[in-house]
Amino acid sequence: MESPQSLFAQGDEDLQAMKAGAMLRKVKSRSWKKQRHFRLQEDGQTIWYKSRWAGTGHSTFSVADVDVVREGHQSEILLSIADEFPADLCFTLVFCGRRSNLDLVAESASEAQVWIRGVRKLIQNTKSMNDKERLDQWIWDWFQKADKNKDGRMNFKEVRTLLKMMNVDMNEEYALRLFTMADNSESGCLENEEFVQFYKMLTEREDVWRVFQDYSRDGQILTLAELEDFLKQEQQEGERSLEHAQELIDRYEPSENAKKHGAMSIDGFQMYLVSPEGAILDPQLLALHQDMSQPLSHYFICSSHNTYLMDDQLRGQSSQEAYIQALKRGCRCVEVDCWDGPNGEPVVYHGHTFTSKILFRDVITTLAEYAFKVSEFPVILSLENHCSMEQQRVMAQLLDTILGDTLLRAPLDRLVPQELPSPQDLKGKVLLKAKKIGGVEESETLTDEVTDEVSDEDEADPKSLSAEALRLNDKKSKFSRELSDLVVYCKSVHFHSFEYSRQHSKCYEMSSFSESKARKLAKDTGAEFVRHNSRQLSRVYPSGMRTDSSNYNPQELWNVGCQIVALNFQTAGPEMDLNDGLFSQNGCCGYVLKPDFMRNDDSFDPERPQDRNGYTSLRLSIQVISGQQLPKVNHKEGSIVDPLVRVEIYGVFQDQAKQETSYIDNNGFNPLWNETLNFIVHVPELALVRFVVEDYDKSSRNDFMGQFTVPFTCIQPGYRHIHLLSKDGTAIPLSSLFVNIKISELTTEV
Q1: What pLDDT, on a 0 to 100 scale, did the predictor assign at position 54?
Q2: pLDDT band at 250 (very low <50, low <70, confident <90, very high)
């Protein structure tokens, strides 16, 4: 048995050269450049490297964790050493999630190309693997880990060690029985193919078999009619069930004989259930499907706070890479804090702190390159302007020259807007959000500057100002005409009251709120906040006290229709899980259409959802059946998890709820719960459902293992798999929950 990646690598010159190895410089800074010996392992999946002085110590990473290879000086670190190493020697490996990049310098341009081409081929091959190939690779990886003496065989002691590594605490007698059944050669060791048989016996899904048996008359196959019945009764598919049943057989049934007879075996049935079609998130709603022609104010917009920061807000690193990562995650509103820099060049950093500084010019260049790689819909550039008049003019010039035609400079069709344009109208455009001299109507007749007191965020939350900032604000700031003229649909204004906004505000005027101010307005005047947000944009940002870059719960602000709920993207946690969950739908384009009752003049009060027209509450029943190949959280030898599942509902106040299963002792490989959790959901259009798996600990806090967050309206009912994500939001291979979901209208008073 050889891994799919290993077979792929055999006939490729670049990959064979990578297996032979090369000395590459690993670069962390202008002063830290160390030579390391890199080579591709025999599995064609793992890259190994070590220092010549490290003895037996070494590091490894999987090609599956690499997102992209950048060629040349395409990172801040490699740019900083451009005078020392030419671009044709340099390349950057960009990892998935929040892991730092790996910047490398080769000895020659030809060697750099070998590694650039080779890693790109491996990434492409990994992404193009089908489910069977992914499983084969996974089995191969485990075999290699357990085969300690590398003789290509495993004795029973090695198998016992492997089971511990795989999170299984199996009865020794039962494990020996499986081992003996797989040992066809009766040699006392499992060779490659025998290990595959052992693994298949180990992973037989009794839970899936039971469901299969419920609908199979002969217990061996599902006929087309029986599969149709399953899709109708359990998966709630309705009229399309017959057509879909045939499609599923064609797509997932491995047996040509079964296919010929229009039937599905247990293997095909299981392949369907673990596929995207069998997942909890409806794949049709993953694609871009919403109406994108409504005003901007009718959408939730994926938004980042202090986008430039990679870490905390006191000493964290400012980086262009942070903008790239946010934009790759579908972010459509990024923030730039601008301050006067040396040599007439504005800089970006968190003012009055020890965070590092980057050039405004470099941020805008990065935005120009990456703004529309993931989504074609508009990007809002939220400008926190602390610059002098001179450097504001420099900013305006840089925005104009670098962004070119992508920068929106005037209203569409040169008309004074009565309502905001749509994401569709603004495709491929960057919108500047900042203070503006006068309004769109008057921009041709205004003076060259205006005096204002503080920046947008400072104005919204004066308590967050430092003593130094207060002193500077006393001098009063001026805004340049050149910069002002670039603000069209996102003019920052002070918020007075909802009454004032209703009578005086223009649709292109928007306000920023600190999380505490926004929360208070949401609680005291929620219905008015909803109405306000149907016409105008609102931006909410974290408290200045969150110096650790922690986040607040965005759901409370989505409940009142706030569009730009800005979060610290660099900080993993439940808040970013909710953000990723909400924006996972609609093609991950960064825009999600708000429910219709938040887009019109109907009075929706999130505190009293039962008062709205057409109100119906739903019962959500989730049978948590089993888990598959859950990740280890403690990598000490012999450590096995005790998993439990918690289901959390986020939505309006009445919908906030959480329940959890009991924990299963010593089994992260195939734990079985068969426990049902029930919830009542009053506003499903706003609800998010978060599934969390934790390792139970009776003496301390439980350890996080994985999670998945899904909008309630995107849930597929029936028997579904939930494919778990890590804390960073990246997929955990083959790790899932198996659930049965039922959604029904509530017919009795609760």
Answers
A1: 58
A2: very high
The position carrying tokens 């494990």 is 175
What type of residue sits at position 596? Answer: D
Please enumerate, by residue number, every residue annotated as part of a binding site.
Answer: 306, 335, 337, 384, 433, 435, 512, 539, 640, 642, 666, 695-697
Residue with tokens 């010159």: 13
Other CB atoms within 10 Å distance of the CB of residue 242: 16
Spatial distance between the Cα atoms of 254 and 221, rounded to a whole number of angstroms: 13
Helical segments of 105-261, H only: 109-128, 131-146, 156-165, 172-182, 192-202, 206-215, 224-233, 241-252, 256-260
Q: Chain centroid to CA 377: how far?
A: 18
According to the model, what pLDDT value does residue 440 have?
80
Weakest-pLDDT range from 85-94, 215-224, 437-446: 437-446
Mean pLDDT of 574-593: 98
CB atoms within 10 A of CB 410: 12
Confidence of residue 166 (pLDDT cuts 50, 70, 90): confident
Instruction: State the binding site for Ca(2+).
Output: 306, 335, 337, 384, 640, 642, 666, 695-697
CA gap 441, 83 in Å, rounded: 50
The residues that are catalytic are: 305, 350
Bind-site residues for substrate: 433, 435, 512, 539
> How far apart (Å, rounded) are the C-alpha atoms in residues 559 and 604?
10
Spatial separation of the C-alpha atoms in residues 584 and 239, rounded to whole Å: 28
Chain Cα centroid distance, residue 184: 45
pTM for the model stands at 0.89
96 burial via Cβ count (<10 Å: 0-12, 13-18, 19+): middle
Confidence of residue 2 (pLDDT cuts 50, 70, 90): low
Q: What CA–CA distances, in Å, run from 664 to 166, 201, 591, 671, 732?
A: 15, 21, 40, 6, 20
- The answer to whether 89 and 105 are in contact (CB under 8 A) is yes
For residue 80, which phi and psi values (nearest 5 degrees)? Answer: -70, -20
Mean pLDDT, to the nearest integer, of 323-345?
96
